[in-house]
Amino acid sequence: MLGPVILAASRSGTLRRLVSAAPVTKPVVNRFIPGETVDEVIPIVADLTRRGLEVTLDVVGEDITTREQATAARDAYLELIGRLKELDLGARAEMSVKLSMFGQSLDGGHDLALANVRPVVEAAAEIGTTVTLDAEDHTTLDSMFAIHEELRRDFPATGCVIQAYLFRTEADARRLAAAGSRVRVVKGAYKEPASVAYQDKTETDKAYVRILKILMEGQGYPMIGSHDPRLISIAQELARRAGRKLDEYEFQMLYGIRGDEHLRLAAEGHRMRVYTAYGTDWYGYFMRRLAEKPANLLFFVRSMITKN
Q: Which end of the chain, N or C, is less surrounded by CB atoms within 10 Å?
């Protein structure tokens, strides 16, 4: 299995330096991460929304080690929100955040992350949009869910992410499938032990369908994070059986993957949101994209061979 190997590599400082220095890397990374600055990504957002798509924006970077870095992450999102406000894009673009980037793993990290993310959520609400808390490895989830619950008291549209490969997730889905909730379900992209997560793709896919059924039959707003054509078809059928209208759920896919499918779903009247990451600390995000799908790794390797 290549996925776990690549995920382990995502933590390697040596490989980070090698990949970052390779001449071919930047053109390939640009497939998934269209810019390093707000100025570079805002035109992408404007173009996607003109084409009938919606966007969620992620300022990449998660392995922070200081409170100053956590504060800088907060300020980067506040800058982004300011630009979205200037261009009146709040109704079409939301934000995705990783709480590790806001200081969750530091001493006193739970309270620090909450203190840093709250002004971002507040600023997002002021321009008519919201924030979704991304799921990270299983050791962080109790903290993430507690922060999510706290934020929803004042900002009920705050979303969260659940990961189908974790054993706990069906129970989390039942708890979260309440009126007003916004829940994105993904397969999962972290290296997790067999004690907490399915290791087999087939079992993960089965869990994904069970979880999606719970969300569709609940009172919240499901967000289907998948590029898998079979799961997308199943999601549409589950929505139909649950009597959901097209604006009562949405699909989410990554920038740079299956772009034609983005447009097809939007043309059919579905809400289709493109997960668009940007920033300079792109290595961990990029490596997880390679781990999720062997075709992504083959694309990268083929590009390296072609360039050499």
A: C
